[in-house]
């Protein structure tokens, strides 16, 4: 059964590769009979689009970065070129964000769900040469700063579901509920683990304190109906325990706990063992060592301030 399922999954990827767009950006709807993209459909790194890009990278990592899984990395790198075409920066504070795309036009909107991207970029940076490696780490840092400010920009210090970026303004909450999502703390965990910069622990602690202040109830934690007013809903999503708190715990744990050299997390934060293979494409020295060596910590850019 496992081999049969693997065959079908690989067959899907084979078909997608046949019609893979030059910029690597797939709309969220694809024709199931032809594999062709629906031209009217949205391209997004947020809801319904995020996991595809994440799993291209992580299939390569779980396969031990060998020749057998090289095509996943190649597709991911193509998609990252497409992601860079969606990057914009705000005025006046130069917050970096990822646009959504509808046909030939861009929508200046970013979901909190897309805040997985800084962690993904940091994780994938090790597969590039030194120049591109630092470039992608820098982009990861900039996006993480934006995502952290999704939280810091509201009265409750908890992020809304999505944000809009209007001309001459930094960020405005769109859908204003918070359902305890994990994506921002997930990226903070990756960036702390891969760079050793304790700033990411500080940011994670601030977010945890905001959950404690606004979402803690006698029987657990609940979301907010509105991050501006702090009005609570009456539900704790399962991913708060499975992902949000897990990533917060790991953010303050030693790097040896679920080592990146042995494990890769799926999109639901479950650790999967990296397959032991020995062929060309296997890297040496460990992922964290590869990233930390050439990486220079960057200070926050002037004008980027969060509310405290």
Automatic annotation (TrEMBL):
It is an enzyme of class 3 (hydrolase). PANTHER family: MANNOSYL-OLIGOSACCHARIDE ALPHA-1,2-MANNOSIDASE IA-RELATED, MANNOSYL-OLIGOSACCHARIDE ALPHA-1,2-MANNOSIDASE-RELATED. GO terms for molecular function: calcium ion binding; mannosyl-oligosaccharide 1,2-alpha-mannosidase activity. Keywords: Calcium, Disulfide bond, Glycosidase, Hydrolase, Metal-binding. Residues 284-308 are annotated as: Disordered. It comes from Aquilegia coerulea (Rocky mountain columbine). Its cofactor is Ca(2+). Disulfide bonds join 115-147. Belongs to the glycosyl hydrolase 47 family. Ca(2+) binds at residue 267. The keyword Metal-binding applies. InterPro entries: 6hp_glycosidase-like_sf (IPR012341), Glyco_hydro_47 (IPR001382), Glycosyl_Hydrolase_47 (IPR050749), Seven-hairpin_glycosidases (IPR036026). This is alpha-1,2-Mannosidase. One of its GO terms (biological process) is carbohydrate metabolic process. SUPFAM superfamilies: Seven-hairpin glycosidases (SSF48225). Its EC number is 3.2.1.-. Transmembrane segments: none annotated. Pathway: Protein modification; protein glycosylation. The keyword Ion transport does not apply. It comes from the Eukaryota. GO terms for cellular component: endoplasmic reticulum; Golgi membrane.
